Amino acid sequence: MNWRHSVLCISALLAAGLAASPAYAQARVGEAAVVQNQVVRVAGPATSQINVGDSLLRNETVHTGQDSAARLVMADNTNLSLGANSTIILDRTVFNDEHSYRDIAIRLTTGAFRFVTGDSEKAAYKITTSVATIGVRGTIFDVLSQRGKSTVALQACCARVCAIGGQCTELTERGDTAIITSTGGRNTLQKTNMPPWTFAGSCGAAAGLCNVTQFADATPTAPPVDDGSSPTGMLCGR
Q1: Confidence of residue 37 (pLDDT cuts 50, 70, 90)
Q2: Which of 73, 89, 107, 108 has the most CB atoms at less than 10 Å from its CB?
Q3: For the chain, what is the radius of gyration of the CA atoms?
Q4: Which SS3 state, helix, strand or coil, does residue 62 take?
């Protein structure tokens, strides 16, 4: 029994060490700051509810339901608001350190979004929809991603928007808007300063949805102190 006791104890301590390791902390790339109604993480056919304060991880898919909304704050203080029936995919995140990214890729799959860039170098951000790519310059912009069409409306300077496989345009003034449409397999881009849509209409869906906050705690909560009730503590003879 003694050798079994030792093996179980060592395994439990190794697991605890991994949970507290820097690699584990880096896997946490953001958190949910605002959650209204049904906001879920999607893993294949399964979904699980996201609550305020819950962590976001690499390669996460987040979806909001009908009459739902969310604001996510990334580790570099990027704020991303989602309206109802919206889906994003956190495709890729490569850290410089705990509070900035060398490379972050986010797909705005479908729905309404407001994106406020954080503290990472602007070239680190790779924002895409089904028909467009968006390069940021220290930016606040709104995106409406629909089937075969994306609308990108600038709120604060500046952004470069490209139709996938097509032309690009610079958005430099508040209200500058790029409308990308896919027709017959070809993506075309139109620029206007009269946005047909902005995320402002979604801001009232939840308190704080269009606020901007800092990512105050970029590390997981410390493990609870063992009070003797933990199976791990019992295995280790405490």
Answers
A1: very high
A2: 108
A3: 21
A4: strand
Query: Cβ of 98: how many Cβ atoms within 10 Å?
Result: 14
Q: Which residue has the tokens 């996938």?
A: 164
Could you give the CA distance from residue 63 to residue 61 in angstroms, rounded to a whole number? 7
What does pTM read for this prediction? 0.80
DSSP 190: E
H or E, element range at 26: helix 22-27
List, in sequence order, every residue forming a beta bridge with 74; answer none if it has no partner: 30
What are the CB-based long-range contacts (under 8 Å, 24+) for 157-163? 159/134, 159/135, 160/134, 160/135, 161/132, 161/133, 161/134, 161/135, 161/189, 162/132, 162/133, 162/134, 162/135, 162/189, 163/131, 163/132, 163/187, 163/188, 163/189
In the prediction, which pLDDT does 91 show? 87
The percent of residues in the chain predicted with pLDDT above 70, rounded, is 78
CA-angle at 188, arms to 184 and 191, nearest 5°: 155
Q: What is the mean pLDDT of the chain?
A: 83
Four-residue CA torsion sign, 232, 236, 237, 238: negative
